[in-house]
């Protein structure tokens, strides 16, 4: 099932919906349905059967008549893991980390799947990182691997947009990862019951040129490993968003380096999920 946060172009009011091949079915068709994606995820055991039954109805909107927003517009936490594909470690010309390498992206960095990316006033070292993203489905701490698997609600395409010079100003990556608009993800959440997250082709294209191409089977630490590790330190909650790492092919590793410029179009595609596409605009 594909679940989205959207607004109809006619009224602009955000709401929840199911995306089918025929269009979008608003969850407001269900009396007293949750109004936000975090609420829906937290209450999913109570709503799953009713939402699944709704998929057989005619769409309330055609897809071309809506704007798709970030599926979770304001996550409680956005975490990203670094150096999680072997080819990315190799191109970074540094030693592979002996432990999982984590950073946070701030909630104000969230962007719609087709929203514009800001080229910052303070830097031109703007880079892309196409990634599989997963959304946490339940409150969990000290997870076993089996509990971690059950704790994932679903999956999205994401771009861990990074301002490289700010990333390496200090040993902490948070500022360089948290500029406004630099966490686009979506275009919807594909629920975990219909997808194996560890066998998905992933590609990033810039202006139609393929820059990254890999498969999630090459994750060094897979999605379940990530939850097990993170949950030793913090309580993960419904709606938390996790960026799972990027494969090789980033602009900063090319010689010469190839930074994103105003007007560039960055597209991230993941098999079984779909794609997001963002144009770069000056801040």
TrEMBL record:
Signal sequence residues: none
Protein name: Fumarylacetoacetate hydrolase family protein
Pfam families: FAA_hydrolase (PF01557)
Sorted UniProt keywords: Hydrolase, Metal-binding
Family: Belongs to the FAH family.
One GO MF term attached to the UniProt entry: hydrolase activity
InterPro entries: FAH, Fumarylacetoacetase-like_C, Fumarylacetoacetase_C_sf
Stretches assigned to the Fumarylacetoacetase-like C-terminal domain: 77-280
């Amino acid at each position: 099932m594909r679940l989205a946060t959207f607004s109809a172009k006619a009224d602009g009011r955000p709401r929840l919906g199911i995306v089918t091949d025929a269009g979008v079915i608003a969850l407001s068709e269900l009396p007293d349905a949750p109004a936000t994606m975090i609420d829906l995820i937290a209450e999913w055991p109570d709503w799953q059967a009713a939402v699944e039954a709704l998929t057989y109805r005619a769409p309330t909107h055609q897809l071309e008549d809506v704007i798709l927003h970030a599926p979770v517009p304001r996550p409680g936490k956005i975490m990203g893991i670094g150096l999680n594909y072997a080819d990315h470690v190799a191109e970074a010309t540094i030693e592979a980390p002996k432990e999982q390498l984590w950073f946070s992206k701030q909630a104000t960095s969230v962007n719609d799947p087709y929203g514009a990316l800001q080229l910052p006033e303070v830097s031109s070292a703007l880079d892309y990182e196409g990634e599989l993203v997963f959304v946490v489905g339940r409150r969990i701490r000290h997870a076993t691997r089996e509990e971690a698997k059950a704790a994932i609600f679903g999956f999205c395409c994401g771009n861990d947009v990074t301002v490289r010079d700010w990333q390496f100003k200090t040993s902490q990556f948070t500022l360089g990862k948290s500029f406004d608009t630099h966490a686009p993800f979506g275009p919807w959440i594909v629920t975990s019951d219909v997808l194996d997250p560890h066998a998905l082709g992933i590609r990033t294209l810039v202006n139609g040129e393929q820059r990254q191409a890999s498969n999630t089977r090459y994750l060094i630490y897979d999605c379940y490993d990530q939850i097990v590790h993170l949950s030793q330190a913090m309580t993960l909650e419904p709606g938390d968003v996790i960026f799972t790492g990027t494969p090789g092919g980033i602009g900063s590793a090319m010689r010469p380096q190839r930074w994103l410029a105003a007007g560039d179009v960055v597209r991230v595609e993941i098999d079984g999920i779909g794609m997001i596409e963002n144009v770069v605009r000056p801040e």
